[in-house]
Amino acid sequence: MEGQANGTLMAVRSGPRSYNPHSLGPDERKRLRPPSYDGMFVNFDYRNMEVNVLRWHSGDERLGEIIDSGLDPYKEIWRCVCGGDPTDSQRLTCKNMFLPVVFGQGSRSLAERMGVSEKTASMVIDKLVRTFPVAFGWV
């Protein structure tokens, strides 16, 4: 997980017709455009795709309820773990910690990333595991 953001696994091109948009540089993006193309090349994360895939594979009902609610999953995860109405900054914090923790980020690394004590990071991890035991168990 070192060097990875939000739990996204590093990948490289797997064949001549496939690519990983996260690993494309500016020059590679330009080469994808046809010669007469005058628009933008866009890539996006469709509806919190990684969280949806985790829910689908793990069958975690709590995570499923959050996703099926139609609300922002990171704000809802924040509410489950920390309580209260999250600010935009807290939502971003949740997005930057949830998947990395699910896929193995430990308390020391999380503490450094969040700028909190290792004890606080450990408490957050424990709360996430208790809140989403099926997802953590699947991983």
Write up this protein.
The protein is an all-alpha fold. The two termini are 14 Å apart. Residues 7-13 have low confidence and may be disordered. It has eight helices and no strands. 22% of the residues are buried. The protein has helices at residues 26-31, 49-58, 61-68, 73-82, 88-102, 107-114, 118-131, 133-138. Helices cover 55% and strands 0% of the residues.
Quick synopsis:
This protein is an all-alpha fold and 139 residues long.
Shape descriptor? globular
Structural class of the secondary elements? mainly alpha
Low-confidence stretches: 7-13
Give the beta-strand count.
Answer: 0
Intertermini distance: 14 Å
Content of β-strand: under 5%
Q: Number of helical runs? A: 8
Give a short account of the largest sheet: none
Compile the SSE list and pairings.
Blueprint: H1 26-31, H2 49-58, H3 61-68, H4 73-82, H5 88-102, H6 107-114, H7 118-131, H8 133-138
Helix pairs in contact: 2-3, 4-5, 6-7
Features:
globular; mainly alpha; single chain; 139 residues
